[in-house]
Amino acid sequence: MTLDATPDPTPAPAPVAGGAMRTGAIPDDQLLVKARAVTKRFGGLLAVSDVNFDIPRGAIVSLIGPNGAGKTTFFNMITGLYLPSSGSIEFDGKPIVTTSGKKIRGKKPHEVAALGIGRTFQNIRLFGTMTALDNVRVGANVHLRSRWWDAALRTPLMLNEETANRAEAMGILRLVELEDRADAWARSLPYGDQRRLEIARALATRPKLLLLDEPTAGMNASETRDVMSFIRRLRSELNLTVLLIEHDMRVVMGISDRVTVLDHGQVIAEGPPAEVRADPKVIEAYLGRGAAEA
């Protein structure tokens, strides 16, 4: 991965405690996600350390950093897969994680999804022997009210939800331009279409926040440009907020409203892309101390 470290003419803001660069506090009513002092330990390994992290409503935010910096661990704490060792996370004004003394409470992944957080994974996790349509329909399960006995008895509630679920899934496939592959097995789709299908399944959860873990991994330049345009369109048409982990700096600098950089589990910089790109700590984290000094 390369990092364009061409200095930006805009003066960089002064660093704050902990080495992170801040461009001004964001009012709470403009925040969709507010994380404070989030820490995650795996035994003796400190994966994320005392991280403060904000995601403004309607923004595209990138979380970047060298391999092993703690990015996916932080993703997993937002989505309920991991419970932090300490700290707090709020989503749309509601607590996902709370700390009271030494007691940590956190919502389960399905509860987080129901609140309005959808995600994709670095390694595609589709149901390979299910159709594209059925993969998308799975995503809507968090909003279904019918239960197993409704399915067994084929109650009106179940039948109505079945019809609505199928129509909604087809609409999402149309949005991601996979409508003509609705009946194809997921594993038979080309790599780029599988990426789109995984995003479609996340959209079926009706998210306010969409988390994308390396959405352009393995793509060529043309495919990457298409994904960037696609993400912008999703933000605009669905009024989404987007958080992405991405190693391709062309994507990060070209699509993000705000960038946060993790290194060894700590925030070392945050702000607009041009300012973050020129920060010596970021250059050093990616390219070494000699490059930062140069």
Would you give an account of this structure?
By secondary structure, this protein is α/β, with parallel strands linked by helices. The protein has one domain (23-47, 66-256): Rossmann fold (3-Layer(aba) Sandwich), CATH 3.40.50. It has helices at 71-78, 109-115, 132-139, 148-153, 156-175, 191-203, 221-238, 249-255, 273-277, 280-287, 289-293, and strands at residues 31-42, 45-56, 60-64, 86-91, 94-100, 103-106, 117-119, 209-213, 241-245, 258-263, 266-271. The radius of gyration is 20 Å and the shape is globular. Mean pLDDT is 84; it is low at 1-23.
Q: What structural category do the secondary elements indicate?
A: alpha/beta
Oligomer: single chain
CATH fold title: Rossmann fold
Task: Write down the overall mean pLDDT.
Answer: 84
Low-confidence stretches: 1-23
Give the count of structural domains.
1
- How much of the sequence lies in strands comes to 15-25%
Count of strand segments: 11
- CATH top level label: Alpha Beta
Biggest sheet record: 6 strands, mixed
Separation of termini? Answer: 19 Å
CATH superfamily: P-loop containing nucleotide triphosphate hydrolases
> With helices defined by DSSP (H or I, 4 residues minimum), what is the helix count?
11
Using only C-alpha atoms, the radius of gyration works out to 20 Å
Strand order of the largest sheet: 7-8-9-3-10-11
Question: How much helix, percentage-wise, in residues?
Answer: 25-40%
The geometry reads as globular
